[in-house]
Amino acid sequence: MDIKFLNENMMGPNAWLIAEELTADLSLKKGMRVLDLGCGRGLTSVFLAEKFGVQVFAVDLWTSATENYERFKQAGVSELIVPLQFDALQLPFAKGFFDAVVSVDSYHYFGNNDTYFEKVLKPILKKDAIVAIAFPGMKYEVHGNIPEEMKPLWEADALEMWHSIDWWKPKFETHLTEFKISEMGCFDRAWNDWLSCDNPYAVEDRLMIKTDNGRFMNIIKITGNIF
Question: I want to staple 14 with a disulfide (CB 3.0 to 4.6 A). Which of 105, 122, 127, 190 is the partner?
Fold first, then answer.
């Protein structure tokens, strides 16, 4: 991955690095149709196309499909990626269309409830489809007892979406075989890559991560196959 391209297109903790760890043990194969759900500026889409040769449907609500298409051409993988601008709550795909879904640093925005996976996402996945999702979380539920030093640094809207492994587990375990949920090992590296950027949002995050100092925040990964 070109470092300049990476730094220009990061929108949070290094999504390329997270995708590498998330997919390390998955059997993604050339020709599979993969939904990259909440792809942002398409770093994960480029990773999936380059690494596995899969056909990627790169869906994001806020990032223009045209802008992502230009990025995919710049990365030399535009023939493998379909850029789309859709709301994750209204996915216009046929039932059983995808062989896999990969989602990095976005699922918590729309899937942090008891119905999204079953009602919206699962129907468009094939039986045995691969599910690989990673998002920011917490080592334990802090909502009833927010540490004083973190109150000025955690935005209320974001905090509502950050939960523990125990909170997320029941939302997936009844729908997946080979179900696994755990903290990701790349937390420090992914965040450090982001914080080293001159992106103004990265600059704002520096004090939060320094103050947290590994005590509360994590990145959670979920993998499995559709029943």
Answer: 190
b/e map 201-219, b = 16+ CB within 10 Å: ebeebeebbeebeeebbbb
Q: Which two tokens stand for residue 44?
A: 């994960």
What angle do the packed helices 187-195 and 200-212 form, to 10 degrees? 140
Q: What pairs with residue 57 in β-bridges? A: 35, 82
Q: Which domains does the chain have, with CATH numbers?
A: 3-226 (3.40.50.150)
- Sheet holding 81-85: strands in order across? 81-85, 55-60, 33-37, 98-104, 125-138, 217-226, 176-183
Contacts of 2-5 spanning 24+ positions with Cβ under 8 A: 2/75, 5/71, 5/74, 5/75
Task: Indicate whether this model's pTM tops 0.90.
Answer: yes
CB of 100 within 8 A of CB of 22? no
Do 212 and 136 meet the contact criterion of CB atoms below 8 Å apart?
A: no
Nearest to 44 by CA among 10, 78, 76: 10
Tokens read off for 223: 């993998």
Q: Read off the amino acid at residue 200.
A: P
